[in-house]
Design a protein that fits this description.
The chain is α/β, with parallel strands linked by helices and 390 residues long. The chain has 2 domains: 280 residues, 3-Layer(aba) Sandwich (Rossmann fold), CATH 3.40.50.1820; 96 residues, Orthogonal Bundle (Rna Polymerase Sigma Factor, Chain: A), CATH 1.10.1740. The chain has 12 helices and 12 strands. An 8-stranded mixed beta sheet has the order 1-4-8-5-9-10-11-12, with helices on both faces. A two-stranded antiparallel sheet has the order 2-3. It has a two-stranded parallel sheet with strand order 6-7. The chain is globular.
Amino acid sequence: MTKQELPQVHTRFLEVATPSNPLHLANGGVLPNVTLAYEAYGELNEKKDNAILVFHALSGSQHAAGLNTEGYPPDLWTPELHPGWWDAFVGPGRAFDTTRYFVICVNYLGSCYGSTGPYSKNPETGRYWASAFPTISVADIVDSQVRLLDKLGIETLLAATGGSMGGFCSMDLAVRYPGRVRCVIPIATGFRATVLAKALNFEQIFAIQEDADFHGGEYYDGPRPERGLILARMISHKTFVSLSLMEQRARSELIQPENLLIGYKLQHKIESYMLHQGRKFAKRFDANSYLRIIGAWQDFDLPMQHADGDPVKALAPCRGQEWLVFSISCDVCFYPEEQAEIAGALKANGINYQHITVHSEKGHDSFLLEPELYAPYITYKIGQVERSST
């Protein structure tokens, strides 16, 4: 389906915290006003029991499916974002079938595509939150989205899913709000930020904060820290795409950048490819928002935060739920051993689960690119859970 044939969708906005009902954060901070940007696909049934919540990845948005050419904010909503990032998975007859289910995707608290974050205005000052926006956690992201579910009148989700950092959120929801979700589908994720992830994330944080244009996060009145964001994306991109796929994608013209590299001329197409990925990203994402979201990743450790480090005890509240856990054979962002640990904890708790290893050559991004490897299992599992209530 071409971009022109995709159904048009629009972002919706919902206020989930007010001064009389503020959002209390895990670090002790308080946000008196929170608005979340979201998109919804399909129809919520009369019982309101057919809803599926999709958590996006680190730098994703609420725009999971269809075509949205007028997203918010306009200066960051580049053409790359116009088609939904999970369109191959969400829609009529697809893994998340919108003829049967009401699918919701929400932009994270702290992000930059319409939800309250550093790049939104602080109502108390009328200026961008910028560096004054507090640090947030995965739990804060989940808490804010539970409030959105409350506003929509959805007490129990049929399913919650997410890949990568979205998997963190789906598991946090399952553990802390066990009665509010029946089926949990974490994809290419883990219990915690590993040592390798912490090192790679820190390199990205350092790259952004050491950019001469960062100014401690107070850069909205001047040039943005694009160089830092470009380098951050190049650091992370190596873990998202397999080397073979990277090499295939790099088979294009080698383009020398202007006003970016001093004293070095690009020698290889892979260099041009990596630089292109970084520059694209710097045009579509906010540096402060990236730091908040990646900081939530750094802080995440589900067993430590809820069961003194014991994975089995951490998942004990999830008894009664159904789980479908996906690994990707060549993933180096979240290694398959990390999902095996989740499966082991589910088994020890007697929780009904399936653990599927997808054999792919595309790396971590397989969960974005290859719906045919996931759809049969998702369709079967959600249908099984749906039928169990009738």
